[in-house]
Every structure is written in structure tokens, then in C-alpha cells.
Amino acid sequence: MAIQLYGALLQIPGLETVDETFSESVMRLWGDTGGMRWPLALCLLVGIGVIIWKFISLQLKAQKTRAILKDVDELLTQQRIREALELTRDTDAPAANILYAGLERSDEGTDRVMKAIENQGLIEMSKLESGMVVLATLATIAPLLGFLGTVVGMIIAFQSIEAAGEVEATLVAGGIKVALLTTAAGLAIAIPVSIAHNYFVSFIDGL
Question: pTM of the entire structure?
Fold first, then answer.
């Protein structure tokens, strides 16, 4: 009975490839997204690249931050301010740069120290947030490109109806398919990019 049912399914148009692999299915659907697949592919590649770069960069900065805070705390506890100043100067990390700005003016009064720390903190924050605008832009653009593909797909469907002079499912199926696939592709790109963006924002706030 199961064999007969499977054989019957294979006779249905469009289901001849039920035995294709997942990757083959994804590539086939990707090819059916029409011309919008290229800008969507660009968004995907840029998003992946920025996410990988940002993740590695922030992890390295977090490790350096933990190490420098521990070392500087030990030095300051022992009143070894000159050594702490040299350590922060020679360490490439946001926390080190902020501490160096404060230690450099440790003999100029509390107000000058706090002002230097605040100014350097703003500079380091802008550095940490580099690339975040790209992710935010991709999270906005990707679904819009998908919706644009939806409009294009519907235009194709109505053009097919106009050319044939009658309404048939086979005439509009191609356009509707493009519309749905581009929308799905845009959302599939935007959702993980948006999640990554929010994760990085939270991570930066915790540094």
C-alpha cells in the first residue's frame, strides 16, 4: 500500500524530486527566486562576513579586557602606578586605552581623570560599534528586497494572465512562486542578522 501511495505521489507534477537531498532542494528553490537572488545573495555574504569578523573581534577584546583589568588592579593595589601606566599603554584593548587615559592624568585631580576616562570611553565605544551599522542595514534591507521580489513576482503573474487572456493556475504559479520564495529568502537572511546585531549590542554593553 505504501509503495503504491509513493508511486502515486511521484505522478503529481512538481513532486518528481521528492528524493532530492536537502542541499539540492535549497539550490533548486534558490534558483527559482528570479533576479532578486543576486542582491539577496550579496546581503547574505556580507552579513556572514561581518558576523564572523565581529564575533572573533569582540571575543579577543573581551579576553584582553579581563586580563588587563586583573593585572592593573593588582598593580594599583601595590601602588605601582608607573608600571600600570606602562602596561595599559602597551596593551591594545578598549579597557587598556581607557585606563591609560585616566592614569596618565592621575596627578591632575579627580575631575580631569574622570573627564579623560569619559572622552576615551566614547572613542572606544565608537570603535567597538564598527560594523554594527552594516548589520542593522542588512536586517532592514533584506526583507525589503524580499517584498520587492514579491511585487515583481505578482507583476509577472498578472502579465501572464494578460498575455493569455484567461486565468489559469499554471499561468500564475510561476510568478506567485517567485513572490513567495523571495519573501522567504529576505526574511531568512534578516532574522539571523537581526539576532546577531542584538547579541553584539548586548555583548558590547557588557564589556
Answer: 0.78
